């Protein structure tokens, strides 16, 4: 861990992350702990104080343990397959959908309906997972689509027959 002015760099077994601290907030390294301080009790300073502390904590957890987000593909004929570093989805479109991972993100496919997005940057992992889910969101009538692992999809009754 290294603090150089407003830049906080965290190194760990999984990699290295850098964060630029917002102006009124200061971060100091004291006997193995990061101390985040604010100059006054203005509303903006208070909000940035907690945010900065959490961002630094997320970076520390990221470089030591890493983050992962699970996705499930639900629906007849819907599946996912590993294609090199990227993945290929069959989601009921007339064409397969290919997704390449950005730098620092890895995809792991289990079976043909489970996908894990993992990396050291919490924000990047969440964003990639959200973009994959956006390809085919779970719909409320049959529940088909891409959902987060453990996500509960609210189901609706269809229209009543005669």
From TrEMBL:
Superkingdom of origin: Bacteria
Gene Ontology terms: biological process: cytoplasmic translation
Keyword terms, alphabetized: Ribonucleoprotein, Ribosomal protein, RNA-binding, rRNA-binding
One example GO MF annotation: rRNA binding
RNA-binding in keyword set: yes
Family matches, as InterPro entries: Ribosomal_uL6-like, Ribosomal_uL6-like_a/b-dom_sf, Ribosomal_uL6_a/b-dom, Ribosomal_uL6_bac-type, Ribosomal_uL6_CS
Entry annotated with the keyword RNA-binding: yes
Large ribosomal subunit protein uL6 alpha-beta domain sequence ranges: 2-66, 74-148
GO cellular component: cytosolic large ribosomal subunit
Pfam family, one: Ribosomal_L6
PANTHER family tied to this protein: 60S/50S RIBOSOMAL PROTEIN L6/L9, LARGE RIBOSOMAL SUBUNIT PROTEIN UL6M
Family: Belongs to the universal ribosomal protein uL6 family.
Function: This protein binds to the 23S rRNA, and is important in its secondary structure. It is located near the subunit interface in the base of the L7/L12 stalk, and near the tRNA binding site of the peptidyltransferase center.
Protein name listed in UniProt: 50S ribosomal protein L6
